[in-house]
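Recap slide: Transcriptional regulator, sequence and predicted structure.
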Amino acid sequence: MEKRFSEMTKEELEQALIKFKEGAMKKHQAGFFSEAAILEQKFYTAKSYLMNPEDFYPETAYTVIGYEQPFKITYLNGIMAWGVFKDQEEEVAFPISRLQAVE
């Protein structure tokens, strides 16, 4: 049975990142886009455990990797940032590793 990301050491998480990134590239090249997307999501979730959630601030706008519109954080729950996109009301969540500061 595999460990949870929250139970892994930094080295184990870094190995998992490599595995997920390589797996996603192979699945994408083979045309298995759904499976590639799942591995990419696992990559971002694992990567979030190497980051500090305290570096992300509610009521601040960020760019979400793979999306065009700014994303404003409402609140954080562990490694997940909950918030809304500009001009939308529905709240969604992303792993903090998918967020980048708006420049």
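The longest helix spans residues 10-29.
The CA atoms of residues 58 and 69 lie 17 Å apart.
(End of recap.)
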